[in-house]
């Protein structure tokens, strides 16, 4: 399986979107500073993920969320209660 995931920083409430085949390992990498782009905003918590059998489908979804504001906004609307629960 390939997963598109959304992490939320407990430091500044920013969101990060990524793709992986192992969510647990990947979150650990984000929280140990192994990812340069997320290191400054640790710790991170996973607030959402979607699973895909096809890597191509997962990559399309990740790109869609990162590039198209409408898709990103719709996702934030769907998970707004989860985001609010994780307020600092």
From TrEMBL:
It comes from the Bacteria. InterPro entries: GIY-YIG_endonuc, GIY-YIG_endonuc_sf, UPF0213_domain. Residues 1-78 form the GIY-YIG domain. Signal peptide: none annotated. Coiled coil: none annotated. Belongs to the UPF0213 family. This is GIY-YIG domain-containing protein. It comes from Candidatus Yanofskybacteria bacterium RIFCSPLOWO2_12_FULL_43_11b.
């Amino acid at each position: 399986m390939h997963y598109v995931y959304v992490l939320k920083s407990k430091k500044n409430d920013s969101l990060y979107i990524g793709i992986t085949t192992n969510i647990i390992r990947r979150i650990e990498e984000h929280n140990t500073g192994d990812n340069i782009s997320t290191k400054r905003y640790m710790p991170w918590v996973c607030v959402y993920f979607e699973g895909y059998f096809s890597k191509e489908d997962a990559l399309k979804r990740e790109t869609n969320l990162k590039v198209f504001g409408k898709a990103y906004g719709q996702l934030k609307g769907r998970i707004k209660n989860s985001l609010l629960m994780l307020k600092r």
